[in-house]
C-alpha cells in the first residue's frame, strides 16, 4: 500500500517475477499519475486506487492478472488499453485536452460508475467479448465509434452519444 497526497510514477510500473498487487491511497484530493505503462513488461496481480482525488493515465497500457479498480475520477492522457480480470471505474472517465481512445479487455465485468466523456469526450471506446459491461453513470460520449463486444447492462437511464455504436451481445438493465 502506497499512501500520500500527489503520487507520480514517472517510469514503467511492473511486478517482479511474481505478479504483485498495488494499492494507492491518495489524500487531500491528491493526483495519482502514471506517466508510463503499468504492467507493461510484467503485469501486476491487481491495481487499486482509492476514491480521493484524480487519476491520470498517461502511459497507454495497464495490465493485471486480477482486478483493476480506480476509485476516483480518471483522466486519459493517452490512448489507453486495460487488460485485467475485471475493470471498475468508480468515478467519471474523461479525456485530457485531446480525445483519447479507451480499450478494455476483461474476462469479468467492466463497470463505469460515473459518466464517461461527460466533461471531455473520448475518441472511441471498445470492450472485448469476455464478461459484461455495466454502465451505471447515465452517459457515454465519444467523438468517434463505440463497440461493446460483451453483454451491456444499464444501471440507470442512459444516453449513449457517438458516431457508430455497435453492440455485439445483449443489452439489459439491472
Radius of gyration: 15 Å
The succession of helices and strands, N to C, reads EEEEEEEEEEEEEEEEEEEEEE
Strand order of the largest sheet: 1-3-5-8-11-14-16-19-22
Distance between the ends: 34 Å
Q: pLDDT below 50 for ≥5 consecutive residues: which ranges?
A: none
Shape estimate: globular
Q: What is the total tally of β strands?
A: 22
Major sheet description: 9 strands, parallel
How many alpha or pi helices?
Answer: 0
SS-based class: mainly beta
- Mean of all residue-level pLDDT scores: 96
Helix content: under 10%
Description:
The protein is mainly beta and 174 residues long. Helices cover 0% and strands 48% of the residues. It contains no helices and 22 strands. The strands form 4 sheets. The chain has a 9-stranded parallel beta sheet with strand order 1-3-5-8-11-14-16-19-22, with no helix packed on it. The termini are far apart. The model has no long low-confidence stretch (mean pLDDT 96).
Compile the SSE list and pairings.
Blueprint lengths: L1 E3 L2 E3 L11 E6 L4 E4 L11 E4 L4 E4 L3 E3 L3 E4 L2 E4 L3 E5 L1 E4 L3 E3 L5 E6 L2 E4 L11 E4 L4 E4 L3 E3 L4 E3 L2 E4 L4 E3 L3 E3 L3 E3 L1
Parallel strand pairs: 1-3, 2-4, 3-5, 4-6, 5-8, 6-9, 7-10, 8-11, 9-12, 10-13, 11-14, 13-15, 14-16, 15-18, 16-19, 17-20, 18-21, 19-22
